[in-house]
Amino acid sequence: MQLFIAFLLAAAVLLLGQSAVPAGKAAGPQREAAAAPAAAAVLPAPAAKPAVRVHTVAAGESLSGIAARYAIDVDTLLGANPDAEELIHPGDELVVLPQKGALHVVAAGDTLWAISRAYGVGVAAVKEANGREDDALAVGEKLFIPGARPRAEAVSRAYGQRFVWPAGGEVSSPFGYRWGRHHAGIDIAAEAGAPVRAARAGRVAFAGWYGGYGYTVLIEHGQGYVTLYAHLDDYVVERGEYVATGQRIGFVGDTGYSFGAHLHFEVRQDGRAVNPLQFLP
Length: 281
Known about the structure:
The structure is a single chain. The model is unreliable at about 20-40 and about 150-160 (pLDDT under 50). By secondary structure, this protein is of the alpha+beta class. It is elongated. The N and C termini lie far apart (about 130 Å). The protein contains 6 helices and 16 strands. A hairpin with a 2-residue loop joins strand 6 and strand 7. Strands 5, 8, 9, 10, 11, 12, 13, 14, 15 and 16 form a 10-stranded antiparallel β-sheet that branches.
């Protein structure tokens, strides 16, 4: 009998111990949750200031196309790259400003007030655009001036370049109307086989037979300018090739709709023929 009672007591103790374990486990996470600190409030990230980027030129790109891609104008692009030439090549690196404006390189004696006055932009706007809180400047530092026009000397390098004569000889037929129709270029009287040269540096857009123009070369120069050289006897360049000002591209001929050897030369601006004489020295 005593053995039976002892067995019942042991069983009761065992059952009570097992039922206590789950309760303890259930209570554990609740205690941990109560002890965990509240999550920190997420603060909004500060707005990033516009970044000055560097664009690596790819094949077929032009200054106007790159400017349009970044929603700026060609003047802004040229103003930020005063050492760049109008003709760009694959692999060239161009500084691209975040919006229309100018890039100013700080010189000795420059102050924020003087720079702001020179460009007609408030000091506060210049400081905000460059993420600055103080007025200290370092010689050689580059400041973005939002909304400012680039200095004329920085832009004139590209726009101020003139063309050279593509062939030697007199103008035998001027630009304008003749024989009841518009003559879109000038004719330069020259001997057959005389060299024809690029009037300006650029990229060859076409070289081959061009209908009534006969053998023809077209060269793109950027800023919407294209020159055309027609009635060639032969050409020595191919599409996609970059040529320098004065480089030989072909020879005077009499191909296509032509009456005697001569060079027909056109300048097109944004697809519209303009008088070449206004570009030639």
